[in-house]
Amino acid sequence: MSKNSSKWYKAHINDEYVKLANKGNWRSRAVFKLKEIDEKYNLITENSIILDLGSAPGGWSQYAAKKHKNIQITAIDLLHMESIPNVNFVQSDIEEFSENYLKKKNFDKIDLVMSDIAPNISGIESADVPAMLNLADIVVEVAINTLKESGNLLVKLFQGKGTDEYMKDMRNYFEKVRIIKPKASRSNSREIYMLATGLKSKSTIQGE
Ligand SMILES: C[S@@+](CC[C@H](N)C(=O)[O-])C[C@H]1O[C@@H](n2cnc3c(N)ncnc32)[C@H](O)[C@@H]1O
Q: Among 147, 164, 173, 191, fewest CB within 10 Å belongs to which?
């Protein structure tokens, strides 16, 4: 193990959210980010139809499926994800999924699109931020084409060049756009979440 990876490993096993995730049998510490946001904004409600993009290893889907038994979740990831009751998993790249999924016209009843997708991080801001924005653009395309009117979008972003414009753009599509840095999100990371609530009606969006 290199010096850097052993440093990362020590920090990881001492991380309070990793300990909590292990204790609660959650698949990832990321679950605490969604939990905090959901507890404040109540995004996951009874009968919700949810798309979980970049879902593996499955913490977010696990949380949503546990919160209400009668919801429908479709989860997508490049990587394999172990099955979770009531979660329909599709192993696919988001771009490929977007092309296939969007062709099926009947998928416009989604209540919540939640995306924790992240690119492989190089540590170089000028590479990581555009890579994240590129993925976030695909996520928004999926969201706008599949969310029902007044539906909500939660998407991970990295702070950096272009992120403010991205969020400004989202105000054309959603009633309210907020930036959230959950407690479980490491303070030294560029990671933030954008919560965009209340998708505007398709006619309003097209008219803009
Ligand atoms: C931070 S993890 C998600 C953690 C998850 N929310 C949880 O609670 O377990 C980000 C995921 O995004 C996935 N990902 C990255 N790029 C992707 C792409 N182009 N298409 C689909 N999934 C992608 C990665 O494979 C990874 O599993």
A: 164
Residue 117 Cβ < 6 Å to ligand 1:
yes
Ligand 1 center from residue 28 Cα (angstroms) = 12
- pTM score above 0.90: yes
Q: Is 78 in the pocket of ligand 1 (CB under 6 A)?
A: yes
pLDDT in tens, the chain (208 residues): 666 667 767 676 678 899 999 999 999 999 999 999 999 999 999 999 999 999 999 999 999 999 999 999 999 999 999 999 999 999 999 999 988 876 665 567 899 999 999 998 888 888 889 999 999 999 999 999 899 999 999 999 999 999 999 999 999 999 999 999 999 999 888 999 999 999 999 778 766 5
Q: Supply 185's token pair.
A: 């999100």
Domains and CATH numbers, the chain: 28-207 (3.40.50.150)
Query: 147-158 and 191-199: which strand pairing?
Result: antiparallel
Which residues are part of the catalytic machinery?
156
Q: Distance, CA 118 to ligand 1 centroid (Å)?
A: 6
Least Cα distance to 156 among 201, 119, 105, 108 occurs for 119
